[in-house]
Amino acid sequence: MSVVRLTVNSFLSMDGVMQGPGGADEDRSNGFDRGGWLVPMADEGMEEVVTGWFRQADALLLGRSTYQMMQPYWEPVEDPTDVVAEALNHLPKYLVSSTVTEPSWRNTTVISGDVVRAVAELKDQGHGELQVHGSHKLAQALYAAGLVDEYRLLIFPVVVGSGKRLFEDGCLPSSFLVPDRR
Question: Looking at the whole model, is its pTM more than 0.90?
Answer without folding.
Answer: yes
